[in-house]
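Example 3.2
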Amino acid sequence: MALTGIRVVEIAGLAPAPMAGMILSDFGANVIRIDRTKQTETVDRLARGKRSIAVDLKSKEGANVVKRLSSNSDVLIEPYRPGVMERLGLGPDILMKDNPALVYARLSGFGQSGPYKGVAGHDINYLATSGVLSTLGKYKENPIAPINLVADFAGGGTLCSLGVLMALFNRTKTGKGQIVDVSMTEGAAYVASWLWRSQNLQLCWPTKIRGRNLLDTGAPFYNTYETQDGKYMAVGAIEPQFYALLLKGLGLTEENMPGPQIDIRKWPEMQKLFSDVFAKKTQAEWIELFGDSDACVSPILTLEGAATDVHNEARGSFMRNENGSYEPRPAPLLSETPGITEVKSDPNIGEHTEEVLQEFGYSKDEIDHLIKNDIVEKL
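Structure, written as tokens:
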């Protein structure tokens, strides 16, 4: 796999950092998660293929364990607010002095500098501060955060892994590592760059009012509709030729419509008409009716339904885990060095403590000492 031979130390945290680590693991990196001692359960559900060592980071000996691991690794990912790693004696100035080739990734809500750097928050707060949340939602309704996908996972975990890979590539030319400062606020804004750069496109932003534009549920031909059986269809018939096919499938003509496709004054009436028509048939009936048409009409599938969709099954887009549930296959699909093709199990806390310590040169006596003094814990 593409990242075989890369060692990653991931300090355990919530969703964004584990996502970054999982991406690296999925493509072959050897990812070791540093868990806290005196805990038996984790909410981390993105630990696929990683190993776990439980370490008391607040003890000097525990910090020394992380130093030793980092001195022989390529990447460290830490999820804390600025200053925490420094207080633990594990800041980049120390770890990169011991290992100048280390890529030190710092994933936080507001970044390592600025007035908000120490402020607590979650995806919705970072999304709000990025400006992106102001654009998400229906007309005359409150802004709606798309779960925690944008700041945590797109602008956070995914961009963190991208930053790590760029730093590793640069290291091939310089031999030196570097700090990767990942702000989820900036990341959310960056993945939404099009929002800023498209403001002068009148077709896309005719009103500048949330929920009254082309792609934000304002346009009737770019929206979702409930079917007779309580399921949903997604419509994205923007281009005139696709819009014509949409009308044909709905049994409508231009003459039936309250106005032309691009008459934004008539969009609310058109949306009501589309809603009424979609409600007359079940999702299955609409799927059969539109078939392979270029009307840009798709059923909104559940998580389970997406995994068993004929197209996704044909490409092997989802994998079954040990519990029989589906998970997305790593993406993108590389022709020569693809990611994993079967699900690797998540580690239990401390499951690999002894194994990892041995791998990094600790003797049996040293390991026994660390375990006896509660510096590390094993499962």
